[in-house]
Amino acid sequence: MDFLKEWVKPLVIISATFLIAWLLPEGPIDPWGIVSLRKAAYMVFALCFIQVFGSAMIRLIGGRKGSILTGFFGGLVSSTATTVSVARESSEDGDEFVGKELLMFLSATAGMLVEGIAFVLLSSDGNHYWLLFIFIGPLVTTAGIIILLVKKIPHRAIKIEDAEIKFLPILGLAALIIGVLAFSKFLQSIFGQSGLLLLTFLVSLFEIHGSVIANLQLRESGVFDYKFLGGLLATSVAASYISKLFLVNTIGSSAFKKRVTKYVMLILLSLLLSWMLFYLLA
To answer: 65 near 91, Cβ under 8 Å?
Structure first.
């Protein structure tokens, strides 16, 4: 009975939010093409999923492994939603459990980078393998930081969350993310297609998937050369980290902000070195 009370209700809610998102119209509801009901509903689903999945994994496989797995799968669903959720948790939990939030944040960005690698591998361009350097450098750096953190964080420093879905905070976080995405979309409408680098930066501020896929397709169509594509992909990754750093510094606790800022600077440095290596070898 306790199991039914604790887990069935959250799982039903997650399934319902996914079904609602899937049934909602995909196109924008406003004349400016900015707000999409489906994207808004998927954001709510992503935040619910992260909360319940995280609680389940931490209980099933332990605190540190559970935090890493939750962050990674949360990053595959939405690295932005995971970042916002983790930053809010850090401000509520205090410094005692900052290790868990750091593991989840870094794992979420690793999930984002793995998706980027998958998109490049699925590209039909025959010369695409050198592009992997742009993602592998930050991914290896992130993995190294995670390994060092796991050795330092004791099991007791991982907070065990309950499986209850807290809707008001989730709706607030979803509204924040949608508002920022809408602003990014508004900026895109102003700049149009006039500058690919600037447009790529704006599109990638909160999720890199769309810009990575679009730029790979443009390269295959012969719009620009191979090295310029590498610069666009590096810009996408950098923009995503910059936006996450902004979100963390807006919402997160002071200890979480300091640690994330330090780690993101290291990852961005590895991105720069990876891009330079790609440019020399490609």
So the answer is: no
Is the pLDDT assigned to residue 171 strictly greater than 90? no
85-118 residues labelled b (16+ CB within 10 A) or e (exposed)? bbbbbbeebeeebbbbbbbbbbbbbbbbbebbbe
Give the SS3 label for residue 84. helix
Kind and range of the H or E run holding 17 = helix 9-23
Q: How far, in Å, CA of 246 to CA of 188, rounded?
A: 19
* d(C-alpha 44, C-alpha 55), whole Å: 17
Instruction: State the Cα–Cα distance between residues 134 and 77, nearest whole angstrom.
Output: 21
Residue 249's nearest CA partner among 265, 271, 266, 233 is: 265
Cα–Cα distance measured from residue 123 to residue 107, given in angstroms and rounded to the nearest whole number? 25
- Identify whether the C-beta of residue 133 lies closer than 8 Å to the C-beta of residue 141: no
- For the stretch 248-268, pLDDT in tens is 998 888 889 999 999 999 999
At 122, is the secondary structure helix, strand, or coil?
Answer: coil
The tokens for 60 are: 């099933």
CA–CA separation, 247 vs 153, rounded Å? 24
Enter the tokens of residue 27.
Answer: 């196109």
